[in-house]
Write a structure and sequence with these properties.
Layout: H1 4-9, E1 15-17, H2 26-34, E2 38-42, H3 49-62, E3 68-73, H4 82-91, E4 96-101, H5 108-113, E5 117-122, H6 125-134, E6 138-142, H7 157-167, E7 172-175, H8 181-189, E8 194-197, H9 199-202, H10 211-219, E9 225-228, E10 236-239, H11 242-252, H12 257-264, H13 266-275, H14 298-328
Parallel strand pairs: 1-2, 1-8, 2-3, 3-4, 4-5, 5-6, 6-7, 7-8
Antiparallel strand pairs: 9-10
Length: 329
């Protein structure tokens, strides 16, 4: 399945494992790379830029296939040393970077001068167009179904993907609500050149999250997420649990961030992933939970998706078209 994305980024399959806080570590990323898809280490999962350099080296010990690093840039009272993480990426010889959060324009000259291809994750067509204008090499467009931050426009992928495809000339990756071959085929039909999956890759054997989290994803349906921070105009989609339900309840009565800060601390979410205590904090998961019913290896997942996608395209869809042509004749 060759697309503009696979040709431009040198990977076998049009499938991406995007950056996920506490999840994008060496074992998962190397397994994704070996499967022929494109995986991303998450820079800020590592406590320091030096730790990131070590994690990149550890990934290279596990695979000789291409992989990238995600650098999420968000405004903060005490921001991480983004420039130092960026330099660690450059010095490590990484060839692909996924940026997310804020406009990457300040980072692009440094990354591009180092010969790095940049994929920028957006949640709206206007931001995708701006990203192409400032010089990124591809855009990942995040629909409302996604885990994490879907933006404030509430536009689902069925509209967002083709709307972005009409405006862009660079490769487009569809993200949000995709977990199987049907999603891959649909995204390609809507104009995307590949798909990005987070929740689905989180629920694989090589994913570093606790097995209890994976089992909960399998048990959950598409309805088992909550939208938090809506009242603060910083919407995030997370799994339904005692903490996220409490946050939604507090927000419904009006609150400031300080009123819920103790509930949504990142360290608490990390505890969920590392210890499997599902109510220790909030943890991200998308509506694609409703499409996930097993915990395969990464290779099994990617092979199954590609094989089934080809079968859908050459089998069911082709036979449907042929039958309609026959009926018209």
């Amino acid at each position: 399945m060759r697309t503009k994305f696979t040709e431009a980024f040198g990977v076998e399959h049009p499938i991406v494992q995007g950056g996920m806080m506490w999840v994008g570590r060496a074992e998962l990323v190397a397994a994704v790379a070996d499967s022929g898809a494109l995986g991303f280490l998450t820079a800020l999962t590592q406590p320091t830029p030096e730790d990131l350099v070590a994690e990149i080296a550890r990934t290279r010990e596990l695979t000789d296939k291409p992989f990238g690093v995600n650098l999420t840039i968000l405004p903060s009272i005490n921001p991480p040393p983004y420039a130092e993480y960026r330099q660690a990426i450059i010095d490590s010889g990484i060839g692909i970077v996924e940026t997310a959060g804020s406009n990457p324009v300040d980072h692009l000259p440094h990354l591009k001068d180092a010969g790095i291809k940049v994929i920028h994750k957006c949640t709206s067509v206007r931001h995708a167009v701006k990203a192409e204008q400032v010089g990124v090499d591809a855009v990942s467009i995040d629909g409302f179904e996604c885990a994490g931050h879907p933006g404030e426009d509430d536009v689902a992928g069925l509209i967002l993907i083709p709307a972005a495809a009409r405006k862009l000339t660079i490769p487009l990756i569809a993200s949000g609500g995709i977990a199987d071959a049907r999603g891959l085929v649909a995204a390609l039909a809507l104009g995307a050149d590949g798909v990005n999956m987070g929740t689905r890759f989180m629920c694989t054997v090589e994913s570093p999250v606790a097995h209890a989290v994976k089992e909960q994803i399998v048990a959950n349906t598409e309805r088992d997420t909550e939208l938090i921070f809506r009242s603060l105009r910083n919407t995030a989609r997370v799994a339904t649990n005692a903490v996220s339900t409490e946050v939604v309840d507090i927000e419904s009565r009006g609150c400031e961030f300080a009123d819920i800060q103790h509930l949504v601390a990142g360290a608490r979410g990390r505890t969920v992933f590392e210890r499997g205590d599902l109510d220790a904090g909030i943890w991200t998961a998308g509506q694609s939970q409703g499409l996930i019913d097993d915990i395969p290896t990464v290779r099994e997942l990617v092979t199954r998706m590609v094989t089934e996608a080809e079968s859908i395209i050459t089998g069911r869809l082709a036979s449907t078209v042929d039958s309609r042509i026959g009926a018209v004749s």
